[in-house]
Design brief:
The protein is an alpha+beta fold. It has helices at 3-7, 31-41, 48-55, 66-76, 79-84, 87-91, 98-119, 128-139, 176-185, 206-221, and strands at residues 146-152, 158-166, 190-196, 225-232, 237-239. A hairpin with a 4-residue loop joins strand 4 and strand 5 (237-239).
């Protein structure tokens, strides 16, 4: 455990960040009371900062974790944003260290795997809302573009969900030949292309449209269908199929 992890729960006072959702860090928490509230009244009874406070119990065996939980939400903006924050930014945050960052990232990974499992329980095209929920959780908060491909079999069941490339804040290099080659390696007969726009605006660029056309044309040669290309923004998405771009 780092010095910051060991010392933070004994500190009191505000986060020093300015105008934020929590102008003060509140009274000292009581772990037994929080656990009882969770078990008796269920997780929905807990505020976001209380969930985060309890999560930090695993990194801090004693002490009050409420001030740190509130300051993290103040800094990153929400409970979800804390979990999705880049590891480097979390490690550089006062009060966090290896144990606490590992706990945060473990919960994020668990949430993504649960969302992915729920989305893939049925043929993907029959489970669209859950698929979008998973993709939003996975990449909507990424600060650089990420290009993912869902590889499907002849019954539209998921074979693989792979991140192909990461790029810059507004561009990801994608090579149609490599996309189709990977589909053939996996014996996939259909694809769903996915990438995020860190700006939050899912409007496709000319390069997005051209790249999609090239992948679709390359797939036609080998009987690999491109079902859709989804662009994920911040709380919004765009479907090429629905917009008539495929």
């Amino acid at each position: 455990m780092t010095t910051s992890e060991a010392e933070w729960p004994t500190r009191r006072g505000g986060s020093g960040i300015g105008s934020t959702p929590f102008p003060g860090t509140g009274p000292v928490g009581h772990r037994a009371r929080m656990r009882q509230k969770l078990l008796e009244r269920k997780p929905d009874a807990l505020a976001d900062y209380e969930l985060l406070e309890m999560l930090l119990f695993f990194a801090f065996k004693t002490g009050d974790t409420k001030p740190l939980a509130k300051s993290l939400i103040n800094r990153f903006g929400s409970f979800a944003a804390v979990l999705a924050a880049p590891q480097g930014e979390l490690m550089a945050t006062r009060g966090l260290g290896e144990h606490s960052v590992a706990a945060l990232k473990l919960v994020q990974a668990s949430a993504l795997r649960l969302a992915r499992a729920e989305a893939m329980e049925q043929p993907v095209l029959n489970n669209w809302d859950r698929l979008l929920a998973y993709l939003n959780a996975a990449i909507s908060r990424e600060k650089v573009e990420q290009f993912r491909i869902l590889f499907l079999d002849s019954k539209n069941r998921l074979i693989a969900d792979e991140a192909q490339e990461k790029g810059t804040v507004n561009h990801t290099p994608v090579y149609p030949r490599e996309v189709i080659k990977r589909a053939l390696d996996l014996h996939a007969t259909a694809l769903i292309l996915v990438h995020n726009h860190p700006s939050g605006d899912p409007t496709p660029s000319r390069a997005d449209i051209e790249m999609t056309r090239e992948i679709r044309q390359a797939g036609e040669i080998f009987a690999v269908v491109v079902h859709d290309h989804l662009i994920i923004g911040n709380g919004r998405h765009l479907s090429f199929r629905r917009e008539g771009l495929l």
